[in-house]
């Protein structure tokens, strides 16, 4: 079974037509795809993707949304959620990695923790036996550790993200309305190389969805960026602090009902600038590719409010011991909505304290991934994701990249991988030219602060 899952998860091209990418596509949906692709100001779309949702999937999603939007998050300061023990037993029974450990221990806190390194070593061993491999999909993530990772997923799992974004929006009094012949969401990137595509969302009556890259190289005319966004009039614009910083510089007139920031930490100053410019709430969602949307920041609650009813959150100390409410440590999660990748005591590598606003569990003082830019000697800025892409083909297990206040660069590699330094520096040359890159030995054993900078202007603020 593991070998068959590995083959199913092997990355390959799309190779499909619209009927295969969108099994329930109507004529209205076709018109929307044509509008997104063929608008005179449209970008150069580099990729193709689709929802791959069948009629049966949509029926299951409607039931999932109905149950999830009304379900409370049952993390409590004095115990484990009622569903957790059955989840542990099922996971140990159906998932090869955990089954190999023998029977589950008597206490949940005796379970060993897992990390991104475990998933990267053999993701197929974390996929349950019962998952049909003919519907498996995958996507690659580099993240903030040095462990490239394929995530096992499914069309229904990908579509479930919308439910948790609806839950987050509802907290701010927003219920999505855009449907047929309207654009629901535009996803923004700002990278030298970015996966871009168009799609429709059948759960919202085939409203349009576009993933675009604001980097000028993806446009026939850089001025088309503002023209295209204004023409689409999306209900929601999603991105990260770096793409939103670029958006602020564009002469757009669009008025979305909300901006949704994911993937990186959003500074209060940038949130205020965005709210002032676009006159709408800006949601800072703590999300991971392995887990999906975990929490949304709410100043009224004093932190990030948990979103998933079936995600158990612990805070652990460096020795792996659970900490009481209010004490700061590493965020560790169990459960989740991805039935292709059930997680048990998964170390996120992020830090915070779990507290309670009444019965509402809140992560306070979240320290996640920070958005960073790097500058070359010609004065050009590069997103840290561009560095991830440049180094993607160098087989390093982990690395850290730092720019000093004077602009000097340092790449730190694991002790046994210093022989890869020349290849890594050569891969970075298209970004930094002939600028010297010092090589150092990486001291961290697992999770590292992959990107750091002391250069003024490196952080999006």
Features:
GMP Synthetase, Chain A, domain 3; alpha/beta; 461 residues; Rossmann fold; 20 strands; four-stranded mixed sheet
How is the secondary structure organized here?
Blueprint: H1 2-9, H2 18-21, H3 27-38, H4 55-69, H5 84-94, H6 96-99, H7 116-121, E1 137-141, E2 149-153, H8 155-171, E3 183-189, E4 197-201, E5 207-213, H9 224-232, E6 236-239, H10 241-248, E7 258-261, H11 268-278, E8 282-288, E9 292-298, E10 303-306, E11 311-316, E12 328-335, E13 343-357, E14 360-367, E15 373-375, E16 381-383, H12 384-391, E17 399-403, E18 409-413, H13 421-432, E19 437-441, E20 451-453
Parallel strand pairs: 3-5, 3-6, 6-7, 7-8, 17-20, 18-19
Antiparallel strand pairs: 1-2, 4-5, 8-9, 9-10, 10-14, 11-12, 12-13, 13-14, 15-16, 17-18
Helix pairs in contact: 4-8, 10-11, 12-13
Describe the protein.
The protein is 27% helix and 25% strand. With 461 residues, it is α/β, with parallel strands linked by helices. It has 2 domains: 2-367, 3-Layer(aba) Sandwich (Rossmann fold), CATH 3.40.50.12780; 373-453, 2-Layer Sandwich (GMP Synthetase, Chain A, domain 3). It has a 12-stranded mixed β-sheet with strand order 4-5-3-6-7-8-9-10-14-13-12-11, sandwiched between helices. The radius of gyration is 22 Å and the shape is globular.
